[in-house]
Design a protein that fits this description.
By secondary structure, the protein is α/β, with parallel strands linked by helices. It folds into 3 domains: about 5-90, Four Helix Bundle (Hemerythrin (Met), subunit A), CATH 1.20.120.140; about 90-295, Rossmann fold, CATH 3.40.50.300; about 305-449, Signal recognition particle, SRP54 subunit, M-domain (434 Repressor (Amino-terminal Domain), Orthogonal Bundle), CATH 1.10.260.30. The protein has helices at about 5-20, 25-40, 45-60, 60-65, 70-85, 115-130, 145-160, 170-185, 205-215, 230-245, 260-270, 290-300, 305-315, 315-330, 335-345, 350-355, 360-365, 370-385, 390-395, 400-410, 415-435, 440-449; strands spanning about 105-110, 135-140, 160-165, 190-195, 220-225, 250, 275-280, 285-290. β2 (about 135-140), α7 (about 145-160) and β3 form a beta-alpha-beta unit. The structure holds guanosine-5'-diphosphate. One of its GO terms (molecular function) is 7S RNA binding. Keywords: Cytoplasm, GTP-binding, Hydrolase, Nucleotide-binding, Ribonucleoprotein, RNA-binding, Signal recognition particle.
Length: about 450
Protein backbone atom coordinates (compact mmCIF):
# COMPACT_ATOMS: atom_id res chain seq x y z
CA UNK A 1 0.00 0.00 0.00
CA UNK A 2 1.35 3.37 -1.08
CA UNK A 3 4.80 1.83 -1.01
CA UNK A 4 6.66 4.28 -3.21
CA UNK A 5 5.25 7.31 -1.49
CA UNK A 6 6.07 5.85 1.88
CA UNK A 7 9.60 4.97 0.92
CA UNK A 8 10.28 8.44 -0.43
CA UNK A 9 8.69 10.28 2.46
CA UNK A 10 10.31 8.03 5.05
CA UNK A 11 13.65 9.09 3.63
CA UNK A 12 12.77 12.77 3.90
CA UNK A 13 11.53 12.26 7.44
CA UNK A 14 14.78 10.58 8.39
CA UNK A 15 16.84 13.46 7.02
CA UNK A 16 14.60 16.05 8.63
CA UNK A 17 14.83 14.43 12.02
CA UNK A 18 18.59 14.55 11.88
CA UNK A 19 18.71 18.28 11.18
CA UNK A 20 19.74 20.21 14.25
CA UNK A 21 19.23 23.50 12.46
CA UNK A 22 16.69 24.45 9.86
CA UNK A 23 17.93 26.89 7.26
CA UNK A 24 16.15 28.39 4.30
CA UNK A 25 18.18 26.04 2.11
CA UNK A 26 17.57 22.73 3.83
CA UNK A 27 13.90 23.50 4.46
CA UNK A 28 13.39 24.33 0.79
CA UNK A 29 15.17 21.16 -0.21
CA UNK A 30 12.98 19.03 2.06
CA UNK A 31 9.82 20.64 0.80
CA UNK A 32 10.96 20.05 -2.75
CA UNK A 33 11.45 16.36 -2.00
CA UNK A 34 8.02 16.10 -0.39
CA UNK A 35 6.44 17.91 -3.32
CA UNK A 36 8.02 15.55 -5.83
CA UNK A 37 7.01 12.51 -3.82
CA UNK A 38 3.40 13.67 -3.71
CA UNK A 39 3.27 14.51 -7.40
CA UNK A 40 4.75 11.17 -8.27
CA UNK A 41 2.08 9.51 -6.13
CA UNK A 42 -0.48 11.21 -8.38
CA UNK A 43 -1.81 13.57 -5.75
CA UNK A 44 -3.83 16.36 -7.38
CA UNK A 45 -1.79 19.52 -8.00
CA UNK A 46 -3.96 21.95 -6.02
CA UNK A 47 -3.74 19.60 -3.05
CA UNK A 48 0.04 19.42 -3.31
CA UNK A 49 0.34 23.20 -3.58
CA UNK A 50 -1.87 23.80 -0.63
CA UNK A 51 -0.08 21.21 1.46
CA UNK A 52 3.39 22.55 0.70
CA UNK A 53 2.44 26.13 1.35
CA UNK A 54 0.92 25.24 4.71
CA UNK A 55 3.95 23.24 5.76
CA UNK A 56 6.27 26.03 4.58
CA UNK A 57 4.41 28.62 6.58
CA UNK A 58 4.56 26.53 9.73
CA UNK A 59 8.20 25.63 9.15
CA UNK A 60 9.03 29.32 9.48
CA UNK A 61 6.87 29.62 12.57
CA UNK A 62 8.01 29.91 16.16
CA UNK A 63 6.89 26.39 17.05
CA UNK A 64 9.43 24.93 14.68
CA UNK A 65 12.24 27.51 14.63
CA UNK A 66 12.09 28.01 18.39
CA UNK A 67 12.01 24.29 19.14
CA UNK A 68 15.02 22.55 20.64
CA UNK A 69 14.73 19.94 17.92
CA UNK A 70 13.52 21.84 14.86
CA UNK A 71 13.94 18.89 12.51
CA UNK A 72 11.75 16.81 14.74
CA UNK A 73 9.23 19.62 15.06
CA UNK A 74 9.05 19.90 11.29
CA UNK A 75 8.32 16.19 11.02
CA UNK A 76 5.47 16.81 13.42
CA UNK A 77 4.16 19.58 11.18
CA UNK A 78 4.29 17.37 8.09
CA UNK A 79 2.54 14.61 9.99
CA UNK A 80 -0.21 16.92 11.18
CA UNK A 81 -0.76 18.55 7.80
CA UNK A 82 -0.87 15.19 6.09
CA UNK A 83 -3.45 13.98 8.58
CA UNK A 84 -5.41 17.19 8.08
CA UNK A 85 -5.67 16.95 4.31
CA UNK A 86 -7.10 13.49 4.83
CA UNK A 87 -9.65 14.84 7.28
CA UNK A 88 -8.11 14.89 10.75
CA UNK A 89 -9.13 18.55 10.99
CA UNK A 90 -12.78 17.47 10.80
CA UNK A 91 -12.45 15.59 14.07
CA UNK A 92 -13.18 12.00 14.95
CA UNK A 93 -16.92 12.44 14.71
CA UNK A 94 -16.61 13.02 10.99
CA UNK A 95 -15.85 9.39 10.25
CA UNK A 96 -18.87 8.07 12.13
CA UNK A 97 -21.96 7.07 10.27
CA UNK A 98 -24.99 9.14 11.01
CA UNK A 99 -28.03 7.31 12.35
CA UNK A 100 -29.87 10.32 13.71
CA UNK A 101 -33.06 9.62 11.90
CA UNK A 102 -36.22 7.63 12.24
CA UNK A 103 -35.21 4.05 11.34
CA UNK A 104 -34.58 2.68 8.83
CA UNK A 105 -31.53 4.83 8.20
CA UNK A 106 -30.89 4.78 4.47
CA UNK A 107 -27.34 4.56 3.16
CA UNK A 108 -27.03 5.26 -0.56
CA UNK A 109 -23.90 4.03 -2.30
CA UNK A 110 -22.61 5.91 -5.32
CA UNK A 111 -19.63 5.39 -7.59
CA UNK A 112 -18.39 4.05 -10.88
CA UNK A 113 -18.60 0.41 -11.90
CA UNK A 114 -15.84 -1.83 -10.63
CA UNK A 115 -14.68 0.41 -7.81
CA UNK A 116 -15.93 -2.04 -5.19
CA UNK A 117 -19.41 -0.73 -4.40
CA UNK A 118 -21.15 -4.07 -4.04
CA UNK A 119 -18.30 -5.52 -2.01
CA UNK A 120 -18.41 -2.46 0.22
CA UNK A 121 -22.15 -2.89 0.78
CA UNK A 122 -21.41 -6.39 2.07
CA UNK A 123 -18.57 -5.16 4.25
CA UNK A 124 -20.64 -2.32 5.67
CA UNK A 125 -23.57 -4.63 6.33
CA UNK A 126 -21.32 -6.99 8.19
CA UNK A 127 -19.68 -4.16 10.09
CA UNK A 128 -23.04 -2.75 11.14
CA UNK A 129 -24.46 -6.06 12.27
CA UNK A 130 -21.31 -6.98 14.14
CA UNK A 131 -20.11 -3.75 15.67
CA UNK A 132 -23.35 -1.90 16.26
CA UNK A 133 -25.83 -4.79 16.19
CA UNK A 134 -28.01 -3.16 13.61
CA UNK A 135 -30.58 -5.08 11.62
CA UNK A 136 -29.58 -4.48 8.03
CA UNK A 137 -31.37 -4.84 4.70
CA UNK A 138 -29.62 -4.50 1.36
CA UNK A 139 -31.03 -3.84 -2.09
CA UNK A 140 -29.59 -3.34 -5.55
CA UNK A 141 -31.06 -0.91 -8.07
CA UNK A 142 -28.69 -2.03 -10.80
CA UNK A 143 -31.40 -3.17 -13.20
CA UNK A 144 -29.00 -3.05 -16.12
CA UNK A 145 -26.88 -5.92 -14.87
CA UNK A 146 -28.84 -8.86 -13.39
CA UNK A 147 -25.46 -10.31 -12.42
CA UNK A 148 -24.90 -7.31 -10.19
CA UNK A 149 -28.15 -7.99 -8.32
CA UNK A 150 -27.15 -11.63 -7.94
CA UNK A 151 -23.72 -10.56 -6.67
CA UNK A 152 -25.29 -8.42 -3.96
CA UNK A 153 -27.52 -11.30 -2.95
CA UNK A 154 -24.49 -13.56 -2.53
CA UNK A 155 -22.53 -10.93 -0.65
CA UNK A 156 -25.49 -10.26 1.64
CA UNK A 157 -25.83 -13.95 2.42
CA UNK A 158 -22.14 -14.10 3.27
CA UNK A 159 -22.54 -11.09 5.51
CA UNK A 160 -25.56 -12.72 7.12
CA UNK A 161 -27.95 -9.83 6.43
CA UNK A 162 -31.32 -9.59 4.74
CA UNK A 163 -31.50 -8.93 1.03
CA UNK A 164 -34.43 -7.37 -0.78
CA UNK A 165 -34.82 -9.13 -4.12
CA UNK A 166 -35.49 -6.66 -6.92
CA UNK A 167 -36.90 -7.35 -10.38
CA UNK A 168 -34.70 -6.13 -13.19
CA UNK A 169 -37.85 -5.08 -15.02
CA UNK A 170 -38.69 -2.51 -12.35
CA UNK A 171 -37.43 1.08 -12.23
CA UNK A 172 -34.58 1.91 -9.82
CA UNK A 173 -36.64 4.48 -7.91
CA UNK A 174 -39.54 2.03 -7.52
CA UNK A 175 -37.19 -0.67 -6.27
CA UNK A 176 -35.65 1.66 -3.72
CA UNK A 177 -39.04 2.80 -2.44
CA UNK A 178 -40.34 -0.76 -2.21
CA UNK A 179 -37.22 -1.82 -0.32
CA UNK A 180 -37.62 1.11 2.07
CA UNK A 181 -41.21 0.12 2.66
CA UNK A 182 -40.12 -3.47 3.30
CA UNK A 183 -37.45 -2.27 5.72
CA UNK A 184 -40.00 -0.23 7.65
CA UNK A 185 -42.41 -3.11 7.93
CA UNK A 186 -39.73 -5.53 9.06
CA UNK A 187 -38.11 -3.16 11.54
CA UNK A 188 -34.74 -2.93 9.88
CA UNK A 189 -32.44 -0.32 11.38
CA UNK A 190 -30.53 0.26 8.18
CA UNK A 191 -31.22 -0.03 4.46
CA UNK A 192 -28.15 0.00 2.22
CA UNK A 193 -28.86 0.75 -1.43
CA UNK A 194 -26.37 -0.40 -4.03
CA UNK A 195 -26.69 1.54 -7.28
CA UNK A 196 -25.71 1.03 -10.90
CA UNK A 197 -22.31 2.35 -11.86
CA UNK A 198 -20.94 3.03 -15.29
CA UNK A 199 -17.41 2.81 -16.54
CA UNK A 200 -17.19 6.57 -16.82
CA UNK A 201 -19.15 9.63 -15.87
CA UNK A 202 -22.49 9.44 -17.61
CA UNK A 203 -25.31 11.97 -17.58
CA UNK A 204 -28.01 9.32 -17.32
CA UNK A 205 -26.35 7.63 -14.36
CA UNK A 206 -26.04 10.96 -12.58
CA UNK A 207 -29.70 11.75 -13.12
CA UNK A 208 -30.72 8.33 -11.94
CA UNK A 209 -28.81 8.50 -8.70
CA UNK A 210 -29.99 12.05 -8.06
CA UNK A 211 -33.58 10.81 -8.50
CA UNK A 212 -32.89 7.92 -6.12
CA UNK A 213 -31.51 10.35 -3.60
CA UNK A 214 -34.61 12.46 -3.79
CA UNK A 215 -36.92 9.47 -3.49
CA UNK A 216 -35.42 7.93 -0.35
CA UNK A 217 -33.67 10.90 1.36
CA UNK A 218 -30.69 8.94 2.65
CA UNK A 219 -29.03 10.00 5.86
CA UNK A 220 -25.71 8.88 4.39
CA UNK A 221 -24.69 9.14 0.75
CA UNK A 222 -21.34 7.46 0.41
CA UNK A 223 -19.15 7.90 -2.61
CA UNK A 224 -17.06 4.79 -3.24
CA UNK A 225 -13.75 5.41 -4.92
CA UNK A 226 -10.96 3.11 -5.99
CA UNK A 227 -7.67 4.24 -4.46
CA UNK A 228 -5.81 2.95 -7.48
CA UNK A 229 -7.45 5.48 -9.80
CA UNK A 230 -5.15 8.36 -8.90
CA UNK A 231 -5.88 11.64 -10.68
CA UNK A 232 -8.96 10.23 -12.41
CA UNK A 233 -10.55 9.59 -9.06
CA UNK A 234 -10.40 13.29 -8.36
CA UNK A 235 -12.45 14.23 -11.43
CA UNK A 236 -15.02 11.56 -10.75
CA UNK A 237 -15.29 12.62 -7.11
CA UNK A 238 -15.78 16.23 -8.11
CA UNK A 239 -18.60 15.35 -10.52
CA UNK A 240 -20.43 13.16 -8.00
CA UNK A 241 -19.99 15.76 -5.31
CA UNK A 242 -21.60 18.37 -7.52
CA UNK A 243 -24.52 16.14 -8.47
CA UNK A 244 -25.25 14.71 -5.03
CA UNK A 245 -25.03 15.90 -1.44
CA UNK A 246 -22.37 13.36 -0.46
CA UNK A 247 -21.88 12.76 3.24
CA UNK A 248 -18.73 10.72 3.07
CA UNK A 249 -16.27 8.69 1.08
CA UNK A 250 -15.20 5.06 1.08
CA UNK A 251 -11.72 4.51 -0.28
CA UNK A 252 -11.37 0.96 -1.62
CA UNK A 253 -8.41 -1.21 -2.60
CA UNK A 254 -5.97 0.51 -0.32
CA UNK A 255 -4.29 -2.86 -0.01
CA UNK A 256 -3.32 -2.82 -3.66
CA UNK A 257 -0.42 -1.00 -5.21
CA UNK A 258 -2.24 2.31 -5.07
CA UNK A 259 0.12 5.22 -5.49
CA UNK A 260 -1.76 7.24 -2.95
CA UNK A 261 -3.10 10.06 -5.05
CA UNK A 262 -6.76 9.41 -4.39
CA UNK A 263 -6.26 8.90 -0.68
CA UNK A 264 -4.61 12.26 -0.35
CA UNK A 265 -6.75 14.25 -2.77
CA UNK A 266 -10.32 13.15 -2.39
CA UNK A 267 -11.11 14.82 0.93
CA UNK A 268 -9.56 18.11 -0.18
CA UNK A 269 -11.42 18.10 -3.48
CA UNK A 270 -14.84 17.18 -2.11
CA UNK A 271 -14.58 18.59 1.40
CA UNK A 272 -16.18 15.36 2.62
CA UNK A 273 -14.65 12.99 5.18
CA UNK A 274 -13.26 9.61 4.21
CA UNK A 275 -15.28 7.36 6.48
CA UNK A 276 -14.02 3.90 5.59
CA UNK A 277 -11.15 2.22 3.80
CA UNK A 278 -11.35 -1.11 2.00
CA UNK A 279 -8.26 -3.16 2.64
CA UNK A 280 -9.04 -6.56 1.13
CA UNK A 281 -11.51 -8.37 -1.06
CA UNK A 282 -12.93 -10.18 1.95
CA UNK A 283 -15.94 -9.05 3.92
CA UNK A 284 -13.91 -8.19 6.99
CA UNK A 285 -11.59 -5.99 4.94
CA UNK A 286 -13.11 -2.68 5.96
CA UNK A 287 -11.53 -0.22 8.38
CA UNK A 288 -12.92 2.93 9.90
CA UNK A 289 -10.67 5.52 8.30
CA UNK A 290 -8.27 7.23 10.64
CA UNK A 291 -6.44 10.15 9.00
CA UNK A 292 -3.76 10.47 11.69
CA UNK A 293 -2.93 6.82 11.50
CA UNK A 294 -2.91 6.89 7.74
CA UNK A 295 -0.52 9.84 7.80
CA UNK A 296 1.83 7.85 10.02
CA UNK A 297 1.72 4.89 7.72
CA UNK A 298 2.45 7.10 4.73
CA UNK A 299 5.39 8.68 6.52
CA UNK A 300 6.78 5.23 7.23
CA UNK A 301 6.19 5.65 10.92
CA UNK A 302 4.31 2.40 11.14
CA UNK A 303 1.11 1.81 12.91
CA UNK A 304 1.75 0.34 16.29
CA UNK A 305 -1.71 1.23 17.47
CA UNK A 306 -3.28 -0.87 14.73
CA UNK A 307 -0.95 -3.70 15.62
CA UNK A 308 -1.96 -3.55 19.23
CA UNK A 309 -5.60 -3.46 18.21
CA UNK A 310 -5.23 -6.37 15.88
CA UNK A 311 -3.44 -8.28 18.56
CA UNK A 312 -6.35 -7.52 20.84
CA UNK A 313 -8.76 -9.02 18.39
CA UNK A 314 -6.82 -12.14 17.54
CA UNK A 315 -4.60 -13.08 20.40
CA UNK A 316 -3.59 -12.47 23.94
CA UNK A 317 -5.47 -9.36 24.94
CA UNK A 318 -3.82 -9.09 28.27
CA UNK A 319 -0.32 -9.32 26.83
CA UNK A 320 -1.01 -6.61 24.28
CA UNK A 321 -2.42 -4.30 26.91
CA UNK A 322 0.47 -4.97 29.22
CA UNK A 323 2.99 -4.07 26.56
CA UNK A 324 1.13 -0.94 25.65
CA UNK A 325 1.00 0.13 29.27
CA UNK A 326 4.62 -0.72 29.93
CA UNK A 327 5.85 1.25 26.92
CA UNK A 328 3.66 4.18 27.77
CA UNK A 329 5.00 4.41 31.25
CA UNK A 330 8.53 4.47 29.91
CA UNK A 331 9.24 0.78 30.44
CA UNK A 332 11.92 -1.11 28.55
CA UNK A 333 11.05 -3.32 25.60
CA UNK A 334 12.80 -6.56 26.61
CA UNK A 335 13.09 -10.03 25.12
CA UNK A 336 9.91 -11.20 26.80
CA UNK A 337 8.06 -8.46 24.97
CA UNK A 338 9.87 -9.32 21.79
CA UNK A 339 8.72 -12.90 22.13
CA UNK A 340 5.15 -11.81 22.70
CA UNK A 341 5.39 -9.79 19.50
CA UNK A 342 6.69 -12.82 17.63
CA UNK A 343 3.88 -15.00 18.89
CA UNK A 344 1.36 -12.40 17.89
CA UNK A 345 2.80 -12.09 14.43
CA UNK A 346 2.20 -15.77 13.97
CA UNK A 347 -1.30 -15.86 15.29
CA UNK A 348 -2.16 -12.96 13.03
CA UNK A 349 -1.83 -15.36 10.13
CA UNK A 350 1.81 -14.95 9.43
CA UNK A 351 3.92 -12.01 8.62
CA UNK A 352 2.41 -10.57 5.49
CA UNK A 353 -0.53 -8.80 7.11
CA UNK A 354 1.68 -7.61 9.89
CA UNK A 355 4.24 -6.08 7.58
CA UNK A 356 2.00 -3.43 6.09
CA UNK A 357 1.70 -1.88 9.49
CA UNK A 358 5.37 -1.83 10.30
CA UNK A 359 7.58 1.20 9.74
CA UNK A 360 9.01 1.49 6.25
CA UNK A 361 12.54 0.43 7.05
CA UNK A 362 11.25 -2.91 8.33
CA UNK A 363 9.03 -3.39 5.35
CA UNK A 364 11.90 -2.82 2.98
CA UNK A 365 14.07 -5.30 4.75
CA UNK A 366 11.35 -7.89 4.69
CA UNK A 367 9.99 -7.24 1.25
CA UNK A 368 12.22 -9.67 -0.55
CA UNK A 369 11.98 -12.33 2.08
CA UNK A 370 10.07 -15.46 1.35
CA UNK A 371 7.13 -15.47 3.75
CA UNK A 372 7.27 -19.15 4.58
CA UNK A 373 10.89 -18.85 5.32
CA UNK A 374 10.18 -15.80 7.42
CA UNK A 375 7.60 -17.65 9.47
CA UNK A 376 10.01 -20.50 10.07
CA UNK A 377 12.58 -17.96 11.09
CA UNK A 378 10.15 -16.52 13.63
CA UNK A 379 9.65 -19.95 15.16
CA UNK A 380 13.41 -20.41 15.44
CA UNK A 381 13.74 -17.04 17.15
CA UNK A 382 11.12 -18.14 19.64
CA UNK A 383 13.09 -21.33 20.22
CA UNK A 384 16.18 -19.29 21.01
CA UNK A 385 14.34 -17.09 23.50
CA UNK A 386 12.89 -20.21 25.11
CA UNK A 387 16.43 -21.40 25.84
CA UNK A 388 17.21 -18.30 27.87
CA UNK A 389 16.92 -17.78 31.58
CA UNK A 390 14.36 -15.25 32.86
CA UNK A 391 17.19 -12.89 33.79
CA UNK A 392 18.57 -13.02 30.28
CA UNK A 393 15.20 -12.24 28.81
CA UNK A 394 14.75 -9.28 31.03
CA UNK A 395 18.27 -7.94 30.57
CA UNK A 396 19.57 -9.05 27.19
CA UNK A 397 22.74 -7.00 27.64
CA UNK A 398 24.11 -9.66 30.03
CA UNK A 399 24.15 -12.18 27.20
CA UNK A 400 27.85 -12.48 26.38
CA UNK A 401 29.81 -15.22 24.57
CA UNK A 402 29.48 -18.05 27.10
CA UNK A 403 25.77 -17.51 27.54
CA UNK A 404 25.31 -17.32 23.78
CA UNK A 405 27.00 -20.71 23.37
CA UNK A 406 24.76 -22.25 26.02
CA UNK A 407 21.62 -20.73 24.48
CA UNK A 408 22.58 -21.82 20.98
CA UNK A 409 23.19 -25.37 22.17
CA UNK A 410 19.88 -25.39 24.00
CA UNK A 411 17.96 -24.23 20.95
CA UNK A 412 19.93 -26.43 18.58
CA UNK A 413 21.19 -23.54 16.45
CA UNK A 414 24.49 -21.85 15.62
CA UNK A 415 25.77 -18.97 17.74
CA UNK A 416 25.37 -16.65 14.71
CA UNK A 417 21.65 -17.23 14.84
CA UNK A 418 21.54 -16.12 18.44
CA UNK A 419 23.41 -12.99 17.39
CA UNK A 420 21.04 -12.38 14.55
CA UNK A 421 18.03 -12.78 16.80
CA UNK A 422 19.51 -10.33 19.28
CA UNK A 423 20.18 -7.76 16.61
CA UNK A 424 16.62 -8.04 15.35
CA UNK A 425 15.41 -7.55 18.85
CA UNK A 426 17.60 -4.46 19.15
CA UNK A 427 16.20 -3.09 15.92
CA UNK A 428 12.67 -3.46 17.16
CA UNK A 429 13.60 -1.99 20.50
CA UNK A 430 15.15 1.08 18.93
CA UNK A 431 12.12 1.45 16.73
CA UNK A 432 9.89 1.49 19.80
CA UNK A 433 12.17 4.04 21.41
CA UNK A 434 12.25 6.25 18.37
CA UNK A 435 8.56 6.26 18.15
CA UNK A 436 8.35 7.30 21.74
CA UNK A 437 10.79 10.15 21.38
CA UNK A 438 9.04 11.11 18.18
CA UNK A 439 5.93 11.78 20.16
CA UNK A 440 4.26 8.68 18.81
CA UNK A 441 3.09 7.56 22.21
CA UNK A 442 1.81 10.98 23.08
CA UNK A 443 -0.06 11.08 19.84
CA UNK A 444 -1.45 7.62 20.35
CA UNK A 445 -2.75 8.67 23.69
CA UNK A 446 -4.42 11.74 22.25
CA UNK A 447 -5.90 9.64 19.49
CA UNK A 448 -7.37 7.21 21.94
CA UNK A 449 -8.70 9.88 24.23
P1 LIG B 1 -18.75 -2.60 -8.11
O1 LIG B 1 -18.86 -2.78 -9.59
O2 LIG B 1 -18.41 -1.17 -7.78
O3 LIG B 1 -19.92 -3.09 -7.35
O4 LIG B 1 -17.45 -3.42 -7.65
P2 LIG B 1 -17.35 -4.85 -6.95
O5 LIG B 1 -17.83 -4.77 -5.56
O6 LIG B 1 -17.93 -5.87 -7.84
O7 LIG B 1 -15.76 -4.99 -6.88
C1 LIG B 1 -14.94 -5.03 -8.03
C2 LIG B 1 -13.70 -5.83 -7.70
O8 LIG B 1 -12.91 -5.15 -6.72
C3 LIG B 1 -14.00 -7.18 -7.12
O9 LIG B 1 -13.11 -8.12 -7.67
C4 LIG B 1 -13.74 -7.01 -5.63
O10 LIG B 1 -13.35 -8.22 -5.02
C5 LIG B 1 -12.62 -6.01 -5.64
N1 LIG B 1 -12.54 -5.21 -4.40
C6 LIG B 1 -13.49 -4.44 -3.84
N2 LIG B 1 -13.03 -3.82 -2.73
C7 LIG B 1 -11.74 -4.20 -2.59
C8 LIG B 1 -10.69 -3.88 -1.64
O11 LIG B 1 -10.85 -3.10 -0.69
N3 LIG B 1 -9.50 -4.49 -1.86
C9 LIG B 1 -9.26 -5.33 -2.90
N4 LIG B 1 -8.06 -5.86 -3.04
N5 LIG B 1 -10.21 -5.62 -3.81
C10 LIG B 1 -11.43 -5.08 -3.66
Amino acid sequence: MLDNLTQRLAKVVKTMRGEARLTEANTTEMLREIRLALLEADVALPVVRDFISRVREKAMGEDVIGSLTPGQALVGVVQQELADIMGADLGKEATRLNFATQPPAVILMAGLQGVGKTTTVGKLARYLTGETRKKVLTVSTDVYRPAAIKQLETVSQQAGVDFYASESSAKPVEIAKAALDHARRHYHDVLIIDTAGRLGIDEEMMQEIAALHEAVTPIETLFVVDAMLGQDAVNVARTFNEALPLTGIVLTKLDGDARGGAALSVRHITGKPIKFAGVSEKLDGLEVFDPARMANRILGMGDILALVEEARKTVDIQAAQDLEKKLRSGGRFDLNDFKVQLTQMQSMGGLSGFLGKMPAQFQQAAQHANMDQANRHVRRMEGIINSMTPAERRRPDIIKAARKRRIAAGAGVQVQEVNRMLSQYEQMQSMMKKMKSGGMMKMMRSMKG
